């Protein structure tokens, strides 16, 4: 049986896709190299939840195409290259899926600490399985309901925020970020049309002092 290596992962991460379609194809290649088994997990999740997909006020993206559900690895590489994380920094992914940001950070910046918060336990377990398989000791996934009143958001050097759920749930976590920003400035990378527009419409505290940096699919905000 062929054994993939970290060198293969690094070589693939160096490739810059020409467009979003190519980025998603590359992400599938990397998922396979890493040994993710996401497709059967998503099939089980969809089968267990499809009857309530349209009746629930909350959104966990059951049934969504896997490469649309997650940020392409190439975009995360672009973020890391732009933000230049320093050793010992803590990056939090709020709605982490299977933990791709942890993979990129562990591969390119091995001393960066990563925590990916995800509501769906099966995704958390699979992400942690892959981290363990590749000895990514500074990366871990944690199950959490980000919108729960008792969820406490810890201080970090960077928060990554995708459209992880319903607008109501996303607003709840942004308000928790605002509470942290009252104590010290924070950095937020927002990906997705929804969350970027919502911040620009309703949360000026994230950009009224420092102008946001806009990229094709993500924006850096600093309070």
Describe the structure.
With 223 residues, the chain is an alpha/beta fold. The protein has a single domain (6-222), classed as 3-Layer(aba) Sandwich (Rossmann fold), CATH 3.40.50.150. 44% of the residues lie in helices and 14% in strands. It has a seven-stranded mixed β-sheet with strand order 3-2-1-4-5-7-6, with helices on both faces. The termini are far apart. 35% of the residues are buried.
How would you summarize what this structure contains?
Helix content is 44%, strand content 14%. It has nine helices and seven strands; from the N terminus they run H-H-H-H-H-E-H-E-H-E-E-H-E-H-E-E. It has helices at 6-14, 20-34, 38-49, 66-69, 73-83, 100-108, 121-133, 167-181, 193-202, and strands at 90-94, 113-118, 139-143, 158-161, 187-191, 213-214, 218-222.
What's the CATH topology name?
Answer: Rossmann fold
Q: Can you identify the CATH superfamily?
A: Vaccinia Virus protein VP39
Total of helices: 9
| Whole-number tally of structural domains | 1
Strand order of the largest sheet: 3-2-1-4-5-7-6
The chain-level structural class is alpha/beta
Strand coverage percent: 5-15%
Query: Largest sheet, if any?
Result: 7 strands, mixed
Quick one: how many beta strands?
Answer: 7
Kindly report the average pLDDT value.
Answer: 94
Distance N terminus to C terminus? 50 Å
Q: Helices and strands, in N-to-C order?
A: HHHHHEHEHEEHEHEE
Uncertain parts: none
